[in-house]
Amino acid sequence: MKTYAGIPEENATLENSKVMLVTVPYDGTSTWGKGADKGPELFLNASENMELYDIETGTEPYLKGVYLAGEVSENSTPEAMTEAVYQKTKELLNNDKLFTLFGGEHSVSIGSIRAVGEKFENLTVLQLDAHTDLRPEFHGSTSNHACAVFEANQKHNLVQVGIRSMDVEEVEYLPEGRVFFAHEIANNENWINDVLEKVSGNVYITIDLDAFDPSIAPSTGTPEPGGLQWYPTLELLRKVFEKCNVVAFDIVELMDSPMAKPSAFLASKLYYKMLAYYHIYNNN
């Protein structure tokens, strides 16, 4: 039995786990760097080589259990993939455990956010990303990676952090007062508290790894200079878990490349840190 991070089987059953992990190895609409379909495999392999004691919190999050809830492999069309992720998420949310997803390109988040938004009222979607991803459609599809949070912005309270690249057509769709551009973050010592003021209640966190500066996460589809750094990002995430009810999160856009290991390990540590924060603030 293959388990997350190679943890003991007793910590990897649905019954014994507080967390469910779905993988979606989809890379059907990316327009530059290809290889995000290998992201889940890279992430899981890196996780097996990670120490399972978290120094910052003094905890071992895996003891709360992580259940590998399967892979969504539908890739015939972007819309079919979105529907398959939606149905898988909707099914798993009945278990009342933390839902987590690892992509794949960012379009995989459309279906999971849709399902989570149907279950939880007053949802805030916190997006860490280099790109706005607010196009209504792109290349003939509403399920393109460039449209990843358009629907979320229409239905929920979208907060965007780390943005530093967008098309002019997306300007009209920007969530007013809830976009934290990277160049503004760089000159604002209080940016984390400013973000927290906009995030409340039930929260879905979606993290495109290109939110990070390419100096620490180069293996992603469209790396952009001037990104987020490790410790400030962790501080933001920890405070979000402390303040709000995080009901689900995803990490996307880990891309295969000759230098994929540092980015894969960053993604693995990031996922595990988020589990640590979830458990200490949910007392479970």
Automatic annotation (TrEMBL):
Q: Which cofactor does it need?
A: Mn(2+)
Kindly give the SUPFAM superfamilies that the UniProt entry links to this protein. Arginase/deacetylase
KW Cytoplasm (keyword) present: no
Specify which residues bind Mn(2+) according to the UniProt entry for this protein: H106, D129, H131, D133, D208, D210
Where, by residue number, does the polypeptide cross the bilayer? Answer: none
Q: Which UniProt keywords apply?
A: Hydrolase, Manganese, Metal-binding
Q: Which InterPro entries match?
A: Agmatinase-rel, Ureohydrolase, Ureohydrolase_dom_sf, Ureohydrolase_Mn_BS
One function term, GO molecular function aspect: agmatinase activity
Cofactor: record remark: Binds 2 manganese ions per subunit.
The family line of this record is: Belongs to the arginase family. Agmatinase subfamily.
Query: Which NCBIfam families does this UniProt record tie to the protein?
Result: agmatinase
Q: What is this protein called?
A: Agmatinase
Q: Which species? A: Chryseobacterium nematophagum
Q: What is the lineage of its organism?
A: Bacteria, Pseudomonadati, Bacteroidota, Flavobacteriia, Flavobacteriales
